[in-house]
């Protein structure tokens, strides 16, 4: 974690470390298995592709996310109030100021991305700007800045590499089946077709990557809620912001929500209408769980300190 006044979250650090270790092990296992089932020389090529994807996602994460949301960087002259809030929060947290972006999207939301605190961007949508009060917006921005300070947005970006590579392999295996993919050893006619082995392995890797990143994603949102509320000392404002954002989704056309759904893991709230998602596959904890945590923080902050 970068040195800031955001409270360190050892639970988040432990989970990020565990997820990166497990996904690294899954990636290595995938390459080893492919070395046995694919023709000689293919596995190193796939490993290079995988590493290239990981590096590209890490290095260009801010650019890709901004383009995906049709967002642009704004200057203090273009968005003075937004910059003033972020200036104040960064001074309060003693952290570098990220770039500031605005996405011309009706979906009320916000996200942070970037490979490091010095190369990050906090972006809000036009849909959220007219929805929240100043205190609520400050709570949302503090939440996003905590993602940058804790570096969990970088870990989430890199952690998705295994799933992306597995998805590419599964599609390649399906094409192999379509064109009658053969076996590695033509003399062993009783062996499994290469495409089938690759398909099964890639699906297993994708499933493991999917659930590990979802587990991390849900915890990091709770961690950012805690850190943001403790920085601003206004947990109730963040709670009402989350309620307004989640409620505002119901007024957004389904097509617009689907267009933004690829960024759900990075949004402060998922771009979905008011339906219940399975806790196992959701990118965020339930709204009730987040509000309960903020209510506990509110109670702790309101409790008189011990005179001793």
Describe the protein's architecture and organization.
It is a single chain. It contains twelve helices and four strands. It has 308 residues and is of the alpha+beta class. It has one domain. A four-stranded mixed beta sheet has the order 1-2-4-3, sandwiched between helices. A hairpin with a 2-residue loop joins strand 3 (110-116) and strand 4 (119-125). The longest helix has 39 residues, at 194-232. The chain is elongated, with a radius of gyration of 22 Å.
> In this structure, how is the largest beta sheet organized?
4 strands, mixed
Q: What structural category arises from helix and sheet content?
A: alpha+beta
- Count structural domains: 1
Q: How far is the first residue's CA from the last residue's CA?
A: 33 Å
């Amino acid at each position: 974690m970068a040195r800031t006044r955001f409270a360190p979250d050892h639970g988040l650090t432990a989970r990020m470390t565990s997820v990166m270790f497990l996904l690294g092990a899954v990636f290595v296992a995938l390459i080893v298995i492919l070395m046995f089932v694919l023709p000689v020389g293919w596995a190193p090529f796939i490993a290079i592709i995988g590493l290239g994807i990981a590096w590209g996602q890490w290095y260009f994460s801010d650019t890709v996310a901004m383009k995906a949301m049709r967002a642009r960087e704004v200057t203090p002259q273009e968005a003075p109030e937004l910059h003033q809030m972020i200036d104040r929060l960064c001074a309060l947290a003693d952290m570098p100021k990220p770039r500031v972006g605005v996405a011309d999207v009706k979906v009320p939301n916000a996200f942070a991305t970037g490979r490091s605190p010095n190369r990050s961007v906090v972006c809000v949508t036009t849909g959220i700007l007219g929805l929240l009060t100043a205190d609520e917006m400050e709570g949302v921005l503090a939440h996003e800045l905590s993602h940058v300070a804790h570096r969990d947005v970088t870990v989430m970006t890199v952690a998705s590499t295994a799933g992306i590579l597995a998805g590419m392999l599964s599609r390649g295996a399906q094409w192999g089946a379509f064109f009658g993919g053969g076996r590695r050893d033509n003399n062993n006619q009783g062996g499994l077709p290469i495409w089938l082995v690759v398909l099964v392995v890639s699906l297993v890797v994708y499933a493991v990557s999917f659930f590990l990143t979802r587990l991390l994603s849900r915890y990091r949102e709770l961690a950012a809620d805690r850190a943001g509320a403790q920085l601003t000392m206004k947990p109730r404002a963040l709670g009402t912001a989350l309620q307004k954002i989640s409620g505002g989704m119901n007024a957004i056309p389904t097509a617009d929500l689907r267009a933004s759904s690829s960024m759900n893991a990075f949004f402060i709230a998922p771009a979905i209408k008011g339906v219940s998602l399975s806790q196992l596959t959701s990118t965020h904890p339930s709204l009730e769980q987040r509000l309960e945590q903020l209510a506990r923080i509110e109670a702790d902050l309101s409790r008189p300190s011990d005179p001793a």
